[in-house]
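Internal tracking record. Fields below are filled automatically when a chain is submitted to the structure queue. Please do not edit lines marked as system-generated. If the sequence contains nonstandard residues, flag them in the REMARKS field before resubmitting.
Queue: standard
Priority: normal
Entity type: single polypeptide chain
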Amino acid sequence: MPVSSAGKQHLESIEGKVSQGTIDGRKRSISTFIENMGDVPIANVSPRMTASWLTNHLEPSGKAPKTLAKYIDNLNLLWKWSFRREWCSGTSPFMDLKSEIPKAEKHKRGFSDEALKGFLGYLRGLPSAKRVQYEVALLLVYSGARLGDICELKVRSIKSENGEVHIFKGKSQAAERVLFFHNPECLEILNQRCEGKEPNDQLFHELKRGGEDNRLSHGLSNRMRYSLEKFMPDAKAQGVDIHSIRRWAGTVFDNTPEIHSELADRMVGHKAGRLLSDVYSDGPENTRLSEGFRMFSGAVELRLCKIGF
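SYSTEM-GENERATED OUTPUT FOLLOWS
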């Protein structure tokens, strides 16, 4: 059984049982292995072959250790699934491969309040053609969302002029959730972006898909990273990147005891709570989420106002 055939059947078997993001990730991992090592019979994949894949292909790709580990996990899952169908035998050749991945050189961290305030100010001062960077960054600050969550929003995602925003598709099923924006500038951005647009239009129309994931966040992420390097030349040495906005938001959640951990997880899309039908209703969970974001927004403004933003 070739790896491609095993992979195709494996992906078909999990369709509808896991998120589309999970399926896409496994498909990408399988395709990468085939591209690098050939469409060999899965029974012939050996520890020597997988070690060569890691050393000669994955590590030189420049991807983060966490990403490399995910590639290996996905191939390990495929191998175990194939083993149960007797298409291969013995011990998985991917099982111990993660231990060979070099550790990340430096732990990533969140922005300091002062650095975030400065970066927002830098983005706000960019030419109008680049204003999307500031608008997206501000929405990230007041939601704790992933960059991809905000970039993928459509006009129909904005459910009211009062800042209710639905994320219908994200990194995982837990990422499908409701956000509430209470900051006046965020509300102005959302409402202006929706004005005169069709429901299925992209909220940020200037973004183009790209990268191996074909995501709207790809190009913007690169541009924001360039802006960060211009503002903070030692950002990489300090372990700061664009995702540090979300890490900073996590610190705000941790320091806002009124927002209990289960609600905070739901707000940032870390854990799936109850059925999504409950989340997308006008029921009590929406009320809790709205109040949670109101408290979070107040905590954000308190931290930024202390340093004059």
